[in-house]
Amino acid sequence: MPVPDAAPFLAVRNLCKSYPERSQFGWRRRMRPVLQDISFSLRRGEVLGLLGESGSGKSTLSRCILGLEEPDSGEILFEGQAAHRWRATHVGKCSVVFQDYVTSVNPAFCVRDIIAEGLRGRGTDAVPSLLERVQLSPDLAERLPHQLSGGQVQRVCIARALASKPAFLVFDEALSSLDVSVQTQVLELLRDIRGEMSYLFITHDIQVAALLCDRLLLLHNGKLEDTVDLSCGDALSSPYLRDLVDSAVVFSSEYAAKDAAKYVTDAVSWESRT
């Protein structure tokens, strides 16, 4: 559960980002806005979902927060400090798990070496326990990525992200390329580690977001449409969230049926019957 603080762990204020448009004749001078005046905060221990369709600006926002891209304007603060200064004094305390696990690992590295990247020179003694934490056998430590299933590689990426004991973790569509059974296993892991850190969970899947997150940011065409507190019973009063629920493809699983966010699950089921 999030820790109530006077100051948020992460604050994003009036963030804007644009890219040059491209035509069949080359790059144009006209800039296309991707993020428009985005502001929100994240508390310590909170799981904040960033929900929106493809192209809404979700990944660009995460890359700006992580320092992988420079915003045009606005500011990003960690614990009240400018993001670049905070990251410089908290090396390894920001981690990320990307959607494309294939390009996220060095194909020539064995599992032990991949996870050791997150340990930052502190040896490899912790690798077996990190593998067990993501429900993988320590016997896999010497295997290469091509010798693992996609779900196993993604869990290795999660183990690497956890290795540095981050304070802030970004999951950028990290479940979308996995099959449902593996998604369930990873979701259970993410629920187990919630509270140990703050993380931003980027997805376009309304049900997955509802099962995991404390709040949702609803992003549409680069604008923040709404912020939804999932602990409130009237969360579906958000028009944009209702649109997402109306268009959801319903799936059922034992895990989804037995756990949280029943207002979304029930709403999706109800919409599918009408």
What's the arrangement of secondary structure elements?
Layout: E1 10-23, E2 26-42, E3 47-51, H1 58-66, E4 73-78, E5 81-82, H2 83-89, E6 94-97, H3 101-104, H4 111-119, H5 127-133, H6 150-163, E7 168-172, H7 180-193, E8 198-203, H8 206-212, E9 215-220, E10 223-229, H9 239-246, H10 254-258, H11 262-273
Parallel strand pairs: 3-8, 3-9, 6-7, 7-8
Antiparallel strand pairs: 1-2, 1-4, 4-5, 9-10
Describe the structure.
This protein has helices at 58-66, 83-89, 101-104, 111-119, 127-133, 150-163, 180-193, 206-212, 239-246, 254-258, 262-273; strands spanning 10-23, 26-42, 47-51, 73-78, 81-82, 94-97, 168-172, 198-203, 215-220, 223-229. With 274 residues, the chain is an alpha/beta fold. The protein has a domain at 99-165. Strands 6-7-8-3-9-10 form a six-stranded mixed beta sheet, with helices on both faces. A four-stranded antiparallel beta sheet has the order 2-1-4-5. Mean pLDDT is 82; it is low at 249-274.
Main attributes of the structure:
single chain; 274 residues; alpha/beta; 6-stranded mixed sheet; 4-stranded antiparallel sheet; 11 helices; disordered C terminus
Beta-strand content estimate: 25-35%
What is the overall number of helices?
11
- Name the overall outline: globular
Structural class of the helices, strands and pairings? alpha/beta
The largest pleated sheet is described as: 6 strands, mixed
Number of strands: 10
Taken in chain order, the helices and strands follow as EEEHEEHEHHHHEHEHEEHHH
Strand order within the widest beta sheet: 6-7-8-3-9-10
For the record, give the distance between the C-alpha atoms at the N and C termini, rounded to a whole number: 35 Å
